[in-house]
Specification:
about 375 residues, mainly alpha, Growth Hormone, Chain: A, 2 domains, globular
Length: about 375
């Protein structure tokens, strides 16, 4: 396996773990600073806000100064933010430092996608991205577990010391690889030099109809799937009165389904074309959201989430693969626009479906989401043809 790919995998896994880290750490930090968890949750908001906003900054930077250099710089920022988080004396300081960590973490996964696209032929790209996503999912699954375990055995600050060290080590590796590559070839990637300004590049990208189709599909996908899935845990609590540990275990099935997809993607690619991936994935999501309100016992929720996760990544990874090719001359900028659309869709979806659930209840919201995802998949499949 390419050593650069391995370094990017480690970086992406740690970045993904940061996104879910406070699922387990929030009560501990709230107790340490003597505030309610709802007050301490500002550290989650600060990280995710920076993570979403700075997507559109790192992509153009990668196009201009090089992918690996941009990722290494981003990891250095994330390392400094993590180290500062470990030393934060109070909640306001921790909030600022988590925002700084989010600035760095935002430049890791999207720019890594662009690097992989630069160095992988299109016919092999979905398989490679599938493996890469598998490690991202592993980070998201292990993030809460690692945070909870280390906070239980050591101290919540020790979690950030570990993340700071990992970020720093990988950034050094990437700086060295980037330096050697430039010294040998005079360039780190194969994209042509970018002469246009950032705003002009975004304007050119958004003027293309196919690009707008991909970005709009990503935004709607994020709105529908993540906007509704954010409330599945609350639904489980209300319907089955499960412990939070069991709820977390059930919802982890989504990531496990994605991991299973990443293991089988090579086999699937030999039997299905991209349109088949989209239609089957959207159909599985329809079944997932229709089955949720009909499930009589909580024991079936875990396997059902695995099923839904598999279907989601069949659809999403195809969409993501197309995003890597929608503007090759400014690939980093284009992928950042894709990530920004997805995150904005998620944020909007949580608001919209929170109101929908209040008005119509969980069952009807799940059913409408499933139908809408199928229609979205059918529409995108028709454009692929």
């Amino acid at each position: 396996m390419n050593p650069v790919f391995v370094a990017l995998v480690v970086a992406a896994a740690v970045s993904a773990a940061n996104i879910r880290l406070f699922d387990a750490l929030l009560p501990t930090i709230a107790a340490d600073f003597a505030v309610a968890p709802t007050v301490a949750s500002v550290v989650v908001t600060s990280f995710t806000l920076a993570y979403g906003l700075f997507q559109i900054v790192h992509g153009p930077l990668g196009d201009r100064v090089g992918r690996l250099r941009t990722i290494a710089i981003a990891m250095t920022i994330a390392s400094a933010g993590s180290l500062g988080s470990a030393l934060a004396p109070a909640l306001p300081e921790l909030t600022v430092l988590r925002f700084i960590t989010g600035i760095g973490a935002a430049g890791i996964i999207p720019v890594s996608f662009a690097w992989i696209a630069d160095h992988t032929p299109y016919e092999n790209r979905q398989e490679t991205l599938g493996r890469f996503i598998g490690f991202i999912l592993l980070g998201q699954i292990l993030g809460p577990a690692l945070g909870g375990a280390l906070a239980e055995w050591l101290n919540w600050r020790d979690v950030f010391y570990i993340f700071a060290a990992v970020f720093a080590v990988v950034s050094i590796v990437l700086f060295r690889v980037d330096y050697s590559s430039r010294k040998t070839t005079g360039t780190e990637h194969h994209s042509p030099p970018q002469q246009a300004g950032v705003l002009q590049t975004y304007q050119e990208i958004l003027s293309d109809r196919w690009v707008r189709t991909v970005l709009l599909t990503a935004a709607i996908e994020g709105t529908l799937f993540y906007g509704t899935f954010a409330y599945v845990g609350a639904w489980l609590k209300e319907k089955f009165d499960l412990s939070y540990f069991l709820i977390g275990a059930m919802l982890a099935g989504l990531g496990l389904g994605g991991l299973l997809y990443s293991l089988l993607v090579k086999w699937l690619l030999k039997r299905l074309h991209e349109t088949g991936f989209v239609l089957i994935g959207a159909s599985m999501l329809l079944v997932f959201y229709l089955a949720l309100p009909l499930t009589p016992t909580w024991h079936a929720i875990g396997p059902l989430c695995i099923f839904g996760g598999f279907g989601f990544y069949m659809l999403h990874n195809t969409l993501q693969t197309k995003a890597t090719e929608m503007w090759p001359t400014a690939r980093g900028t284009a992928i950042s626009a894709f990530a920004f659309s997805l995150f904005c869709g998620q944020a909007l979806g949580v608001i919209l479906f929170g109101r929908a659930i209040s008005a119509f209840g969980y069952d009807w919201t799940f059913i409408v989401t499933g139908i809408a995802l199928l229609l979205l998949g059918m529409r995108f499949a028709s454009r692929l043809r």
